[in-house]
Amino acid sequence: MRIDAWLVVAEDCAPESLLEAARRLGGVVSAVVVGTSDLARRVARTADRVEWFPTTPEIPAEAWSIAVADLLATEGARVTLAGNGPTSRTVLGAVAARLRAPLLAPVVDVSATREGVVATRLVYGGIAVEHDEAAGPACLVVEGSTPRSAETDDVLGEVHGPADVHGPVEVHRVEATPLAISCSVNAPPDRIERDLASADRVIGVGRGLGDPAFLTDVERLAEALGAQVACSRPVAEDLGWLPRDRYLGVSGRRIAPRLYLMLGISGEIQHMIGVRDAGLIVAVNSDVRAPVVSGADITVVGDLHAVVPALLRQLTTSSRKEPQPCVASS
């Protein structure tokens, strides 16, 4: 069974994830790109057709939501895939409403059947999967389609498409009228770096931190380790110590660093779902009965207010030591 698919590609998604999923359906892959001309040209290297809605500082991607929905309704889109970033989900939501289609998220796999498509998605906070079959139009949010780092972002050539045979397809700029809306962004403090998705090392802080003033020491530790700073949901939503896009877990960000250092986080499953793909999880917690004790690879049971300064001293001392010559033994 072959099913044609449409993609909604915005700046907050990694197009290769969508293209890989769409190619598994075996049909024609068309893309609606809501973004810059550079993004449209990149997608044109592997999609069979590209319809482009240009964005500018005055015209954000969300302003094209209704126009994109109208286009896909006219095209009779059967399966539409989008990334899991906020802009992509906003546009896809408009498409789902226009098509009267179910919106399934987060989808980790999709396949074609005689009746339609089967979407495999995470449920119960990611501890189980569910297979949903849709015979009519369906809109799918693809898990793991957040942007990659600059070093790994330009990998669309790995996804096979028409460009392998005859070069990129033509990008068609859609003539339409955007909604008269504007988006404002509240920039976080300069101390907070933005790229959690590609970080090799991440430090997560919880309510056990006790005092937001201690974030200064945490940030010094992050700088020494070359790490990003994240947090549990209460730290962002209840206490407001860090921006909301910094919290990890079922309803927050999901990361896969090589090292995740947890400071004062109890380790409930809602949080651990967001970090379960980390290579090594090290936790510091004063409660020997906390769930994180069994959930982490290494647990230091102790006062983080003593452990963090000790780590800082050790890292500082190590960085100042003169390299010792290597003497071979006879």
TrEMBL record:
Occurrences of domain Electron transfer flavoprotein alpha/beta-subunit N-terminal (ranges): 16-144
Cofactor entry: FAD
InterPro entries per UniProt: DHS-like_NAD/FAD-binding_dom, ETF_a/b_N, ETF_a/FixB, ETF_asu_C, Rossmann-like_a/b/a_fold
Domain Electron transfer flavoprotein alpha subunit C-terminal: 195-275
GO biological process, one term: fatty acid beta-oxidation using acyl-CoA dehydrogenase
GO molecular function, one term: electron transfer activity
Family: Belongs to the ETF alpha-subunit/FixB family.
Function statement: The electron transfer flavoprotein serves as a specific electron acceptor for other dehydrogenases. It transfers the electrons to the main respiratory chain via ETF-ubiquinone oxidoreductase (ETF dehydrogenase).
Oligomer status and interactors: Heterodimer of an alpha and a beta subunit.
The protein, known as: Electron transfer flavoprotein alpha subunit apoprotein
Species of the source: Raineyella fluvialis
